[in-house]
User: Fold this.
Amino acid sequence: MPKFIHVGCGQKRKDRTTPGFNQPAWEEVRFDIDVNVQPDILGTMTDMAAVPSGSMNALFSSHNIEHLYPHEVPVALAEFRRVLAEDGFAVITCPDLKSVCALIAEDKLLEPAYDSPAGGIAPLDILYGHRPAMAAGNLYMAHRCGFTEKVLVGTLQAAGFVSVASRSRPGPFFDLWAVASVVPLEPDALRALAVQHIPLN
Assistant:
C-alpha cells in the first residue's frame, strides 16, 4: 500500500486532504510539531530525521510553508524531497499573496475576505497568521513568509522537484496549489496528478 506523509496535519485526517489521497489505497502517516494533535511522527518541517529517506510515495502539506522564515523554506523542501521515493510527488498548498494583496490595494486589510469555521478571515490574517489563534497562545499559527504562483513553482524547482503543475485560486479561496514530482513526468501524467490533487473550486 502506498504511503503519503501528511505534513503539519494538525487535527486533520486524510479525508481533509485531496480526493486523490482520500482513498482506501493510500495509507496516511500524520506528521506534526505539536504533540497535542497526536501525530504518528513528531517533528518539524526543517528536521524530518524521524522519517527515513525515500520511505514515502507522496507528501501533502497544506498551509505550512508560510509558517517558515524564508531561509528555512529550502531546508524544508529538501526534507520533503528526501523522504520521497524515487517516483514520489508532493502536493503543497499555501496562501496566494497576489490575490490577497489585491484586497489590500483596495484598502480592505481588516475586512473579512471569507468566512471560516473560526470566523471571518481578513487579509491581515492571511498575511501574518490567524490573529485569534495567536492571541490564545498558538504562535505556531504565525506566518513568516509568502508566495505567489511564480515564486512557489520556482522554489520547488530550485529544491530539485522536476515537474510542477500549479494553480492559483483567487477569492474566496486566496490560495495556491502545486503538484511537484521528483522525476520528470510526461504532460499527461502530470495533468492526471493535478486532476486528482488540485481542486478547481
